[in-house]
Write a structure and sequence with these properties.
The chain is mainly alpha-helical. Helix content is about 75%, strand content about 0%. The protein has one domain: Up-down Bundle (Amino acid/polyamine transporter I).
Length: about 375
C-alpha cells in the first residue's frame, strides 16, 4: 500500500506542480510580494476544501468517472453539459500550456550541449514522448511519473535554496492592487489538481483513509513550495522577477541557473503533461465512450494543432483557464458536494463557507472576463 500511496501522491503533486509555478513570481508583481503570498495562502486553503469535496464525490460514487458525469448524476443534465464544456477547455488549455513551455524548457536545456538545437525539434520530441506514454497508458506511466516528480522536487529545492542563500530581500513591500485578476488566475491554475483525483483514487485501490491524507498533503505541499520559490526568485532577481522567473536570477546566480531552471521547468511540464493527458484520455474513453485509439490520437494531436493555429501566449492562457475553467469547475464541485447523500472527508463544513467560496470564484471569473473584454476593445 505504501508503494501505491507514493505513486498516487507523486501523480497528484506532479500534476499540480506544473508550468504555473514559473508564472507566479512575475504575476504577483501586480499586487506585491506580501499580497501575492497572502493570496497564495488563501487560495491554497480554498483549493484544499474543494479537493476534499471532490474526494467525497469520488468515494461516494461507484465506478470510475470524471466531473461531467458527477455533475450530471447529482445536479442534472444542464450542469453536466456545462461541466463538460469547462473540462474540455481546461484540459486542452492545460495541455497547450505544457507543450508551449515544456518544449521551450527542453530546447533551453539541450542548447547547453548542442547550441543549434531548435524549438521545432523540441516540439517534435515532446510530441513523441506524449504519444508513446499516452498510447501505453498505465503499463509504465505511473512509475515514470513517480520518478519525475521526485526529481522535480529535488531540483526545485536546489533552486529555492540557491536563490535564498545568494539573494536578499530588504522588505516584502506593501500590497499594490494593480491587476489582481492575473495573479488570481495564475495561482488558481497552479494549485488545481481535482482533474486527476479520480485516477489517484484508482491508483490507491479505493483506500478512503489514505486517499484523504493524500489529498491534504498533496494540496498543501505544492503551495508551500510555491511560496518558497516566489521568495527565492524575488530575492535573487536584482531587477525584479522575469516573466518566466529564471532569467531574472541569472545576473546574480550565473548562467548555470538557467540550465537548472530549464531542468525544473521540463520536469514540471512533463509530469503535469503526463498526468493531465492520461486523465483526458480516460475521460474520452470512459465518459465519452471513444475508442482507446481515437482517444489517444485526440489527446496527442490537439495541443500541437493549437500551437500550429497560433495559440502561443501562455501567460494569457494560464490566467484565463485558471480564472474561468477552474473557477467554474470548483463551483460545480461545491454544488455537487452539497447534493451528496453523505460526507466522509468534510463532514463539518458550514454552508456559509461554501457561499463564500462560490463568491470568490464568481468574482474571479467576472474579473477575468472583464479584463479579457478590455483587451478585445483595445485591439
Amino acid at each position: 500500500m505504501q508503494s501505491r500511496y507514493l505513486q498516487g501522491l507523486a501523480l497528484f503533486i506532479g500534476t499540480i506542480i506544473g508550468v504555473g509555478v514559473f508564472t507566479l513570481p512575475f504575476a504577483i508583481t501586480h499586487i506585491g510580494l506580501f499580497g501575492g503570498l497572502s493570496l497564495l495562502g488563501l487560495l491554497a486553503v480554498a483549493m484544499l476544501v474543494v479537493h476534499l469535496m471532490y474526494g467525497d464525490a469520488i468515494v461516494a460514487t461507484p465506478g470510475r468517472h470524471h466531473l461531467p458525469v458527477y455533475a450530471e448524476r447529482y445536479l442534472g443534465r444542464g450542469w453536466g453539459s456545462l461541466a463538460t464544456i469547462s473540462n474540455l477547455v481546461l484540459l486542452n488549455g492545460a495541455l497547450l500550456v505544457y507543450v508551449l513551455l515544456g518544449s521551450q524548457f527542453l530546447a533551453s536545456l539541450v542548447q547547453f550541449i548542442f547550441p543549434g538545437f531548435s524549438l521545432g525539434a523540441s516540439l517534435a520530441i515532446f510530441f513523441c514522448i506524449g504519444a508513446v506514454i499516452f498510447f501505453f497508458d498505465g503499463i509504465f506511466s505511473t512509475e515514470i511519473e513517480e520518478l519525475l516528480t521526485i526529481l522535480l522536487i529535488l531540483v526545485l529545492a536546489i533552486v529555492i535554496g540557491w536563490g535564498m542563500l545568494r539573494g536578499h530581500i530588504t522588505g516584502i513591500g506593501p500590497v499594490v492592487w494593480g491587476s489582481p485578476s492575473l495573479p488570481y488566475g495564475a495561482i488558481l491554475f497552479s494549485l488545481a489538481g481535482a482533474v486527476v483525483l479520480p485516477r489517484v483514487y484508482a491508483t490507491l485501490g479505493t483506500d478512503h483513509h489514505a486517499f484523504r491524507s493524500l489529498v491534504i498533503f498533496g494540496t498543501l505541499m505544492p503551495a508551500i513550495l510555491y511560496g518558497l520559490f516566489i521568495v527565492a526568485v524575488w530575492a535573487a532577481s536584482p531587477a525584479g522577477p522575469s516573466q518566466e522567473a529564471i532569467l531574472g536570477m541569472q545576473p546574480l546566480l550565473g548562467r548555470w541557473v538557467v540550465a537548472l531552471g530549464a531542468t525544473v521547468g521540463f520536469l514540471a511540464t512533463i509530469t503535469s503533461y503526463i498526468g493531465v493527458g492520461l486523465t483526458y484520455k480516460s475521460l474520452l474513453q470512459f465518459d465519452f465512450r471513444l475508442s482507446r485509439l481515437l482517444a489517444w490520437a485526440f489527446v496527442t494531436a490537439v495541443p500541437f494543432l493549437l500551437v500550429v493555429a497560433g495559440f502561443a501566449n501562455f501567460i494569457a492562457i494560464i490566467g484565463f483557464v485558471g480564472a474561468i475553467s477552474i473557477g467554474f469547475d470548483n463551483i460545480v464541485i461545491i454544488r455537487l458536494w452539497h447534493a451528496l447523500p453523505e460526507h466522509k472527508f468534510l463532514a463539518l463544513w458550514p454552508r456559509w463557507g461554501s457561499v463564500a467560496l462560490v463568491a470568490v470564484f464568481v468574482a474571479g471569473m467576472a474579473a477575468a472576463l472583464l479584463e479579457f473584454w478590455g483587451d478585445i476593445l483595445t485591439l
